[in-house]
Amino acid sequence: MITTSLFTLLPLLPLVSAHGWLNSITIESPTSTSSRTYTGNIPNASPTDSPIRQINNVDPVKGTTNEFLSCGQGAEVASQVVEVNAGDSIGFAWVNGDAGPWVHNAGPMQTYMSLCGDNQTCSSFNAASASWFKIQEQGRITAGGDWFMSLMNTGAPANVTIPLNIKPGNYIIRHELIALQIAQVEGGAEFYPACVQVSVIGDGEGAPMEDELVSLPGAYSDTDPGILVDVYSNPDADYVFPGPAVAAFVSENSTASTAANTTSTSSTAPSSCKKRRSVDTIHPRTLSRVMKSLLSQ
């Protein structure tokens, strides 16, 4: 019986480890040498103070009409709201289902923001009613080459810059990875969204236009050319990012970018690579329960 359980477990482990979540964010200011790191909650664990909304499952969100497309599987509001300055850089450290470096390497990374309202903090804001605008999108590093997402396979974070000219206020930042390794069939694309609650400090007046605001779900279709796509058969083809364009007020020198000193085929300019801080190997409860169940058979 133990032998049977172990054989059953073997194909399960790679599948779970290929999934993942946003483990932490690190905020850095161009005017300061110090940084602040905030750790997210392990999926389905008892929540602690964090500005990262906790999900309850490491699986990807599947389907563009899925209710969890906004902030991730079963995402709950977080207890903290952290202050960031316009122009600050935020490093999003994603991990796989075993808390190791991110596994997927093909697909875009996109960043959205939404105002939580003038009289409401983001710790009580329902993301289902958010009006999102895009501040960043990144595809391949070079035409026909690797994707920016692949840089996280070494443990590096995805670095995003808060627009320097953005109007101050309470915002949710939504960072999204779209894994396209099985996107050749409709419904195959895997969405990994995560939401962070912030209060932006600054004196800018930048804001999206009405026609740049979208709902999630709502902004994507399962047949969009950037979602239903074979990224392997024609790697030299231009990638069509799903959703709206980057908001017009986001100037080129204040847009987000992930780590690399090379020419980008996305609408943003790359920055230098930063190493992610080491992550303790902690396994989500969803995985440990499965393992215990299988090994007890």
Automatic annotation (TrEMBL):
Signal peptide range in chain numbering: 1-18
Instruction: Give the superkingdom in one word.
Output: Eukaryota
The UniProt keyword set, sorted, is: Carbohydrate metabolism, Cellulose degradation, Copper, Disulfide bond, Hydrolase, Metal-binding, Monooxygenase, Oxidoreductase, Polysaccharide degradation, Secreted, Signal
Q: Does the keyword Oxidoreductase apply?
A: yes
Q: Which GO terms describe its biological process?
A: cellulose catabolic process
Q: Where in the cell is it found?
A: Secreted
Similarity comment? Belongs to the polysaccharide monooxygenase AA9 family.
Q: What is this protein called?
A: lytic cellulose monooxygenase (C4-dehydrogenating)
Tell me which Gene3D superfamilies the record gives: 2.70.50.70
Which reactions is this enzyme annotated as catalysing?
[(1->4)-beta-D-glucosyl]n+m + reduced acceptor + O2 = 4-dehydro-beta-D-glucosyl-[(1->4)-beta-D-glucosyl]n-1 + [(1->4)-beta-D-glucosyl]m + acceptor + H2O
Q: Keyword tRNA processing on this protein?
A: no
Swiss-Prot/TrEMBL cofactor(s)? Cu(2+)
Task: Identify which top EC class this enzyme belongs to.
Answer: oxidoreductase
| Biased composition, class Low complexity, residue ranges | 257-272
Residue spans with biased composition (Polar residues)?
Answer: 38-54
Q: Which GO terms describe its cellular component?
A: extracellular region
Which residue intervals define the domain Auxiliary Activity family 9 catalytic in the entry?
19-236
EC number assigned by the record = 1.14.99.56
Which GO terms label this protein's molecular function in UniProt? hydrolase activity; metal ion binding; monooxygenase activity
Organism name: Lentinula aciculospora
For the region Disordered, give the residue spans.
31-54, 257-279
Task: Specify the taxonomic lineage.
Answer: Eukaryota, Fungi, Dikarya, Basidiomycota, Agaricomycotina
InterPro entries (UniProt xref): AA9, AA9_LPMO
